[in-house]
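User: I've been trying to design a sequence by hand for this structure and keep getting stuck. Would you show me what you'd pick, starting by listing the structure so we're on the same page?

Assistant: Good idea, let's start from the same input. This is the structure you sent:
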């Protein structure tokens, strides 16, 4: 019988140690060992192999996962590398169990970010291309025009692509609400910059079904209802991804005939 092998970065993600990207950084830095030896990037392991990070054994445990909602203050960096960043999210929360953020919220921004030690749900949320709404309240440096609202809603150039259409609503002279379904690097700030506006404050108030409802700098566990609804949204997203992939495949087949 063929052994069930998986890449070391996938293993570290699935057991809830860190994301795959963070795992790759640990491997590249030589902080990971397999059976006492430093592996190459992409090395696969079996259930018999023993994995250590910084000399500490990593066990595959699926019980007792943590799911937190955190109201991040401005100035806190969303990284698990506590050796590099002084004002990092891990040291700030100081949770007794190793956790890591799902996605990012840049240093000058504040608001909702989710943290967990469940690598599976991290991958599901970050892979989701549908129904993965993130809602923000933003203030800018000059009065908001109707043209600004329309252009932001319909998409503007960001990082060599046009941003997806999104919901944008004017709340005040300098304030607007925006709901995104994609997560390009510093997306809202780049969209505003393209239209000659500068972001003054940016707060994320919702991720999918999870709403910001705690004081700044504090965290709470997700409720059972929130977690159930979150999984339902992720399941629907997966079904839509599969349907889109099948449609795309059929179109490709037609073109080649």
């Amino acid at each position: 019988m063929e052994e069930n092998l998986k890449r070391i970065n996938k293993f570290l993600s699935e057991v809830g140690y860190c994301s795959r990207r963070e795992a790759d950084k640990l491997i590249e830095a030589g902080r990971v060992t397999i059976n006492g030896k430093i592996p190459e990037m992409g090395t696969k392991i079996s259930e018999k192999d023993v994995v250590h990070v910084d000399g500490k054994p990593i066990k595959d445990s699926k019980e007792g996962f943590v799911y937190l909602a955190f109201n991040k203050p401005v100035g806190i960096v969303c990284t698990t590398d506590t050796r590099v960043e002084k004002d990092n999210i891990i040291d700030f929360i100081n949770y007794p169990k190793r956790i890591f953020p799902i996605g990012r919220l840049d240093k000058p921004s504040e608001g909702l970010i989710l943290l967990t030690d469940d690598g599976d749900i991290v991958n599901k949320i970050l892979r989701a291309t549908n129904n993965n709404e993130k809602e923000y309240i933003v203030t800018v440096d000059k009065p908001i025009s109707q043209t600004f609202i329309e252009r932001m809603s319909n998409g503007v150039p960001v990082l060599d692509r046009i941003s997806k259409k999104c919901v944008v609503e004017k709340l005040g002279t300098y304030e607007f609400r925006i709901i995104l379904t994609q997560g390009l690097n510093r997306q809202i700030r780049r969209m505003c910059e393209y239209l000659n506006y500068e972001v003054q404050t940016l707060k994320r108030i919702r991720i999918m079904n999870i709403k910001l409802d705690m004081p700044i700098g504090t965290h709470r566990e997700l409720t059972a209802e929130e977690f159930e609804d979150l999984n339902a949204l992720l399941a629907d997203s997966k079904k839509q991804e599969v349907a889109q992939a099948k449609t795309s495949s059929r179109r490709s087949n037609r073109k080649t005939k």
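That's my pick for every position. To get oriented when you compare it with your attempt: The two ends are 40 Å apart (CA to CA). The domain at 67-128+211-223 is CATH 3.30.70.580 (Alpha-Beta Plaits).
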